[in-house]
């Protein structure tokens, strides 16, 4: 039986150290990313080509270089120590000089030489030129290498800043942009505009759109150049419409590229959203997303055109439009980027509004919240309280409210943050801490007043005001919001639906339960994209109705509006099965038991399950008989022992 001869042992550190000077230098060039080309080796080491060829062949034969002409890894780790820092540095300098003169410098050589600390303006410029073509994370690394080996000019500094911002490193991005702004007297207008755009985006990500607006106000229409439309969008969102229109008027000479045309459509759409119709606004915003060539090179912006368009759609009940825009945007997003997180958050928000709570929660749970900045964190907290409020999970609501305090303490209100602010406003009343958010609510109301109560944006805020008045049990506070919605209904079908629902709520609070009016208002809310709100209106009216037939009819409306949400993920509707054995509970009894153990009253349980408090009382009586409980405390103990009350998911119907 023949045996395979043993493989030769790898060369040792002594073997490496015993190589002659030419052979070590050849390995040094490989360490610096150069190919073992005998012509290049001969030129760099100033030896004859035959000597270079001989050295390369020996290194291959002795196993220092593999079949791909790559330095073998164990030797790579030892070689720098054998050569010494001074010799490596000298080889790097000579290799760089050769490639620069010949015009043959490659990125692997450039990066390897940069790591040795060789200072060279040519090397820095080469690395910057490659960074301009790289994806943001790679560009950050290349700009960092370039900065180590040479001085970056303003354009390179701003490219570095943009790459950092796109990669999520706002601190570095804004610091680099500010270093350009500090020298504004000697910086070109184009570079100043780019620096302002990066700083303005950083401020917007941190929930300080007023800071973004101040930056563009400082830059002025004469220096903003091709970023005029970006400036106008920021100014509109911050509530400074007159300044936005002045900037747009001064931007007529901007080059008509796809990028500037897209930005102009976004700015025009935002202006229309305040001064014109929702349809015109959505048309401009959506067309901005359809221009060809706009994604050739990413730019950091205060917000993505897709996010702005989706938020505009959400504010006028166009949920399908918002979902389509966001789905398209997610297809081209870089995973984990700021814009990708933004688009996922708004997708989750859309799911929550249309009643698909499981999908909203699943998408929210999939995000890395720890990497987010204040603007997106506000939506995270708005989602958390919104989901907890809709599922009746009081413990989760309190926890989510507590978690939101840090962001609320730092945020400045703008048009694009009204939705999460509204959810947090309702939560503040629910937990008895309305004073914590009063200043932001007042800022939001002042913002929409300053802009002339634009129906597209103000309607959602006033609808939250209607709900806040209901939660606070202050019908008088509801009236101004209902009036504002009534005025907006003259130009907005969405506002008209909200206005009708507001009137229906007011009548319900006054004890006037009109089945037809409530059903019409509830179904209108469903039709304009607010099914949960419609179900809640019908359910609350049913609980306040003294007539059993009226209550039953309204509860059926509430169930009908909630049913699509319950089956949105494809699950079969729950059925009420009989008990499988003595002492077990039906599905409906288990639902009642779960909420009962959590401390909800019969009325609150009825509100969650869309059945009357009297029906809940009958369910509890049957549960006591089935379990043989002698008292309420014994019943609760037995239910806890059965596992009820251990989950926070109370939204089973």
Automatic annotation (TrEMBL):
Record keywords: DNA-binding, Transcription, Transcription regulation
Recorded GO MF terms: DNA binding
Gene3D superfamilies with a match to the protein in the record: Tetratricopeptide repeat domain (1.25.40.10), Winged helix-like DNA-binding domain superfamily/Winged helix DNA-binding domain (1.10.10.10)
InterPro entries to which the protein is assigned, alphabetical: Sig_transdc_resp-reg_C-effctor, TPR-like_helical_dom_sf, Tscrpt_reg_LuxR_C, WH-like_DNA-bd_sf
HTH luxR-type domain span: 578-643
Keyword check for GTP-binding: no
GO biological process annotation, one example: regulation of DNA-templated transcription
Protein name (record): Helix-turn-helix transcriptional regulator
Species of the source: Rhodococcus oxybenzonivorans
């Amino acid at each position: 039986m023949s045996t395979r001869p043993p493989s030769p042992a790898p060369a040792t550190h002594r073997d490496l150290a015993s190589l002659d000077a030419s052979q070590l230098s050849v390995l040094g060039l490989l360490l610096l990313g150069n190919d073992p080309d005998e012509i290049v080796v001969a030129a760099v080491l100033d030896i004859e080509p035959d000597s270079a060829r001989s050295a390369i062949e020996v290194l291959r034969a002795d196993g220092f270089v593999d079949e791909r002409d790559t330095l073998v890894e164990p030797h790579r780790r030892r070689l720098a120590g054998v050569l010494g820092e001074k010799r490596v540095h000298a080889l790097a300098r000579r290799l760089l000089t050769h490639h620069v003169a010949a015009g043959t410098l490659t990125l692997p050589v450039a990066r390897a030489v940069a790591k040795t600390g060789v200072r060279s303006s040519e090397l820095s410029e080469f690395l910057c030129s490659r960074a301009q073509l790289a994806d943001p994370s790679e560009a950050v690394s290349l700009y960092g290498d370039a900065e180590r080996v040479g001085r970056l000019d303003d354009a390179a500094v701003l490219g570095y800043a943009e790459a950092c911002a796109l990669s999520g490193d706002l601190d570095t991005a804004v610091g680099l942009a500010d270093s350009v702004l500090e020298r504004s007297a000697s910086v070109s207008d184009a570079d100043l505009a780019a620096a302002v755009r990066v700083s303005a985006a950083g401020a917007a990500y941190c929930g300080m759109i007023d800071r973004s607006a101040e930056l563009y106000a400082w830059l002025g229409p004469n220096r903003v150049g091709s970023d005029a439309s970006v400036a106008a969008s920021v100014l509109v969102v911050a509530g400074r419409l007159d300044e936005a229109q002045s900037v747009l008027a001064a931007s007529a000479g901007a080059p008509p590229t796809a990028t500037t045309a897209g930005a102009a459509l976004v700015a025009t759409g935002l202006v229309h959203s305040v001064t014109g119709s929702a349809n015109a606004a959505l048309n401009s915003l959506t067309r901005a997303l359809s221009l060809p060539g706009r994604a050739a090179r990413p730019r950091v912006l205060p917000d993505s055109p897709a996010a702005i368009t989706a938020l505009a759609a959400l504010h006028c009940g166009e949920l399908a439009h918002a979902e389509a825009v966001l789905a398209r945007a997610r297809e081209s997003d870089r995973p984990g980027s700021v814009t990708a997180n933004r688009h996922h958050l708004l997708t989750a928000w859309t799911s929550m509004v249309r009643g698909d709570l499981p999908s909203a929660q699943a998408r929210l749970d999939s995000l890395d919240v720890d990497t987010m900045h204040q603007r997106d964190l506000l939506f995270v907290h708005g989602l958390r309280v919104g989901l907890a409020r809709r599922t009746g999970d009081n413990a989760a609501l309190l926890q989510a409210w507590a978690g939101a305090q840090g962001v609320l303490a730092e945020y400045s209100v703008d048009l694009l943050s009204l939705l999460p602010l509204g959810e947090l406003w309702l939560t503040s009343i629910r937990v008895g801490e309305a004073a914590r958010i009063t200043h932001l609510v007042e800022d939001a109301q002042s913002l929409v007043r300053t802009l002339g109560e634009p129906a597209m944006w103000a309607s959602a805020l006033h609808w939250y005001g209607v709900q806040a008045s209901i939660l606070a049990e202050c019908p008088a506070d509801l009236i101004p919001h209902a009036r504002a919605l009534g005025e907006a209904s003259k130009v907005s079908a969405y506002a008209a639906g909200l206005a009708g629902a507001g009137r229906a709520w007011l009548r319900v609070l006054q004890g006037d339960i009109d089945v037809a009016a409530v059903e019409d208002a509830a179904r209108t809310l469903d039709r304009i994209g607010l099914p949960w709100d419609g179900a809640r209106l019908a359910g609350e009216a049913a609980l306040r109705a003294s007539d059993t037939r009226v209550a039953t009819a309204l509860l059926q409306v509430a169930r009908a509006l909630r049913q699509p949400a319950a089956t949105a993920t494809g699950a079969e509707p729950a059925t009420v099965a009989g008990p499988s054995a003595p002492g077990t509970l039906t599905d409906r009894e288990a639902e009642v038991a779960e909420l009962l153990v959590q401390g909800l009253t019969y009325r609150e349980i009825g509100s969650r399950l869309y059945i009357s408090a009297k029906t809940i009382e009958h369910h509890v009586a049957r549960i006591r008989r089935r379990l043989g409980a002698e008292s309420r405390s014994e019943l609760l103990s037995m239910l806890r022992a059965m596992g009820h009350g251990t989950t926070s998911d109370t939204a089973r119907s």
